[in-house]
Design a protein that fits this description.
single chain; 199 residues; alpha/beta; five-stranded mixed β-sheet; two-stranded antiparallel sheet; globular
Length: 199
């Protein structure tokens, strides 16, 4: 049984979006960073939760998944975000740079077509805050066709939670032991839902 990929987003997952009053979770610490291509006079601020480092390191080094960054941070995911969290080095998916004004130009997450083509029939657990109902339908259909797919969708204002990582670990362990189940995912954590997917 092939080891599933773990696709990991950053914005809205590791870097939460500010609340309406501009606040970020008290668990997160501010860092000033300089992404590739930006001038030294144009650094950006990011807020990261130090506990995410060991939490994700345990998932990455579990041997149950093959991790890849799946984010518009691209190579900076490893050199900046991963480094700040003390994560092992792992590659990023080389996403295109589409000229879009919404993250759902076709009603679903803009990354999905590229991800689907790259994956082929490989199993995947994908953590991203920006899935739509069409993405969850895609995951269920992909699973029904024999390509196990788990979508985990954190609240973008709270970021990744231990329960999100636990959902991936449980799913991966069930696959390893040969257990199978099915459950369509439509819930969003911020709207009373949880991590969602099918296997």
């Amino acid at each position: 049984m092939p080891r599933p990929y773990l696709l990991l987003d950053i914005d809205g997952v590791l870097i939460p979006f500010p609340a309406g009053d501009g606040s970020t979770p008290a668990t997160h610490v501010r860092h000033t960073v300089l992404p590739a291509g930006r001038r030294p006079a144009e650094p950006v601020s990011v807020w990261l939760d130090p506990s995410h480092g060991p939490l994700l390191a345990g998932l990455v080094t579990s041997g149950l998944v093959t991790p890849l960054w799946c984010t518009s941070w691209r190579g900076d995911a490893t050199t900046i975000i991963g480094a700040l969290l003390g994560l092992p080095v792992f590659p990023h998916l080389d996403l295109p740079r589409p000229q879009i004004t919404t993250s759902h130009p076709n009603g679903y997450l803009w990354k999905r077509d590229h991800v689907a083509q790259w994956l082929g029939g490989a199993p995947v657990a994908w953590i991203d805050d920006d899935f739509t109902d069409l993405d969850h339908i895609w995951a269920a259909e992909r699973t029904a066709g024999g390509s196990a797919t788990l979508l985990v969708q954190p609240d973008p204002y709270a970021g990744l939670q231990p329960s999100d990582v636990a959902a991936v670990l449980e799913w991966a362990r069930l696959r390893l032991t040969g257990a199978r189940g099915a459950g369509a995912c439509g819930g969003r954590r911020g709207a009373g839902g949880g991590g969602c997917g099918s296997w």
